[in-house]
């Protein structure tokens, strides 16, 4: 069978086009949450691309694949995607919703960071989209459920920037303890203010970490190395690193810690988790740091706690509303508390740079771009955050008449029987299927397939009522 002879439309929810007309058409586990859980190694299945005997699965002209990268995705990621000859458009900022909707109509792959909101309203316009790459840790900006139900896989980089965030927290803890932000600002403005009142060593102080995952646990180790006592609160029981100890309740942590730092995901439970009541429970003269998501801390309540002297200082890296790009745009139009926040003493404000280091961005670029290529070219979902993890060993060059069928479907009874009736005309060499909630993902490598059979195979799967998306790769 001639490789790349036919192109199979893969996007679900649309009428199958004539094979001849679709030369421009082409058909991605739970992120580990604890230091003791099994971490995913960075995507490594590109090794398959490099193995001489592995067969490239590209039932499409790769140069027809349109990739839109927003928010200044690192050069490393762009290079990998361009290396596949995909058409890559890379923009430095995110896009307002109306422009995003226009752009997303066309593309097969989109890469974003934390600012681009891929809501159901945006995604319903994404007629060709098969995969989303979040070039960051957080995936709260994407409607993961809607994406899964539309057959769109979502990938992220679960820990490539954890160390960078932890290091920033260490820097900020010392800056807050010594009021460095204020001293520096004063001297920039020509004022010499040599003070020691209210300035402390961090040695012997208690750090309370809320959310003891990738970032929280890294921070724990670094803080202990500076002589801090570490306690943490998490919704799951986790083994503390070093001598760090878990406390049973959030309130216990708030009452004991000198520094409280947040490293939880943005989910329903964590929205507004630090508000007036929690500030009251904190020690007088304590410090609060938030580099998780802007919705986790009630900032007007933080402003009151700072003005009243309850808090000795705070460091914020994230805000409920953040600008789409760089510029003089951190103002009251964005968040109505901004002016008051800017006036506070010993409050460090940073523009969501926790993960913004050369090391982190370069590693994220590679990890997410490789996951995207593996999904587009091979259908592999290892590392996807909204689909079951499915992978099969590569087809090899010794298997010229094999095709890989990817069938994303509603998780309802009887589907496998019907699919296997269709595949049963061929030899099913290997097959893997798994489900996650309402969506199931089936991958099968079948042999003895003639080029002429592919359209029929594809169409039969498309015609099943359970179909979300069909892809045939060969
Ligand atoms: N500022 C930045 O640039 C930056 C960079 C990386 C990550 N982040 C944010 O930090 C968050 C944490 O990152 P991570 O890699 O450590 O995530 P993670 O998933 O490894 O860890 C999160 C931890 O929070 C715990 N948790 C969940 N809900 C909780 C609750 N209600 N109370 C207490 N604990 C709870 C989880 O059990 C888990 O152990 C990310 O989701 C992301 O939003 C920000
Ligand atoms: O780079 C970003 O925009 C997001 C960084 C961070 O919040 C993350 O979720 O990894």
UniProtKB/TrEMBL annotation:
The keyword Kinase does not apply. The keyword Hydrolase does not apply. SUPFAM superfamilies: ACT-like, Formate/glycerate dehydrogenase catalytic domain-like, NAD(P)-binding Rossmann-fold domains. One of its GO terms (biological process) is L-serine biosynthetic process. Residues 22-44 have a biased composition (Polar residues). GO terms for molecular function: 2-oxoglutarate reductase activity; NAD binding; phosphoglycerate dehydrogenase activity. Its EC number is 1.1.1.399, 1.1.1.95. InterPro entries: ACT-like_dom_sf, ACT_dom, D-2-hydroxyacid_DH, D-isomer_2_OHA_DH_cat_dom, D-isomer_DH_CS, D-isomer_DH_CS1, D-isomer_DH_NAD-bd, NAD(P)-bd_dom_sf. Pathway: Amino-acid biosynthesis; L-serine biosynthesis; L-serine from 3-phospho-D-glycerate: step 1/3. Keywords: Amino-acid biosynthesis, NAD, Oxidoreductase, Phosphoprotein, Serine biosynthesis. NCBIfam families: PRK11790.1. This is 2-oxoglutarate reductase. It comes from Cladosporium halotolerans. The lineage of its organism: Eukaryota, Fungi, Dikarya, Ascomycota, Pezizomycotina.
């Amino acid at each position: 069978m001639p490789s790349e002879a036919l192109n199979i439309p893969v996007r679900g929810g649309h009428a199958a086009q004539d094979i001849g007309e679709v030369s421009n058409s082409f058909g991605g586990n739970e992120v580990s949450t604890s230091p003791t859980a099994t971490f995913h190694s960075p995507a490594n299945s590109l090794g398959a691309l490099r193995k001489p005997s592995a067969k490239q699965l590209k039932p499409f002209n790769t140069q027809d694949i349109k990739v839109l990268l927003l928010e200044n995705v690192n050069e490393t990621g762009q290079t990998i995607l361009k290396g596949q000859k995909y058409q890559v458009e890379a923009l430095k900022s995110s896009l307002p919703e109306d422009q995003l909707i226009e752009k997303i109509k066309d593309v097969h792959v989109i890469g974003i960071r934390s600012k681009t909101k891929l809501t159901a309203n945006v995604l319903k316009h994404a007629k060709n989209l098969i995969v989303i790459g979040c070039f960051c840790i957080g995936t709260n900006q994407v409607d993961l459920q809607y994406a899964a139900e539309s057959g769109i896989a979502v990938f992220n980089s679960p820990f490539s920037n954890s160390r960078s965030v932890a290091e920033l927290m260490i820097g900020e803890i010392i800056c807050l303890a010594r009021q460095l932000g204020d001293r520096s600002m004063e001297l920039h403005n020509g004022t010499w203010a040599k003070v020691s009142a209210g300035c402390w060593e961090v040695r012997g102080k208690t750090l309370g970490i809320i959310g003891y995952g990738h970032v929280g646990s890294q921070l724990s180790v670094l803080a202990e190395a500076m002589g801090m006592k570490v306690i943490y609160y998490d919704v799951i029981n986790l083994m503390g690193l070093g001598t760090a100890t878990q406390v049973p309740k959030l309130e216990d942590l708030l009452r004991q810690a000198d520094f409280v730092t947040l490293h939880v995901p943005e989910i329903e439970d964590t929205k507004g988790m630090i508000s007036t009541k929690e500030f009251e429970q904190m020690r007088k003269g304590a410090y609060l740091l938030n580099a998780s998501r802007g919705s986790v801390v009630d900032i007007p309540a933080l402003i009151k706690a700072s003005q009243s002297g309850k808090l000795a200082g705070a460091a914020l890296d994230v805000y409920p509303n953040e600008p789409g790009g760089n510029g003089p745009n951190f103002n009251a139009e964005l968040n109505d508390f901004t002016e008051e926040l800017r006036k506070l003493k010993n409050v460090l404000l940073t523009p969501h740079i926790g993960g913004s280091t050369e090391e982190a961005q370069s590693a994220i670029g590679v990890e997410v771009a490789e996951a995207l290529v593996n999904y587009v070219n091979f259908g592999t979902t290892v590392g996807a955050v909204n689909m079951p993890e499915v992978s099969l060993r590569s087809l090899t060059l010794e298997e010229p008449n094999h095709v890989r069928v990817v069938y994303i479907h509603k998780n309802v009874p009887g589907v496998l029987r019907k699919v296997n009736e269709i595949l049963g005309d061929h030899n099913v060499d290997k097959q893997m299927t798994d489900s996650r909630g309402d969506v199931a993902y089936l991958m099968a490598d079948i042999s003895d397939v003639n080029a002429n059979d592919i359209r029929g195979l594809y169409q039969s799967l498309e015609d099943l009522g359970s179909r979300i998306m069909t892809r045939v790769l060969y």
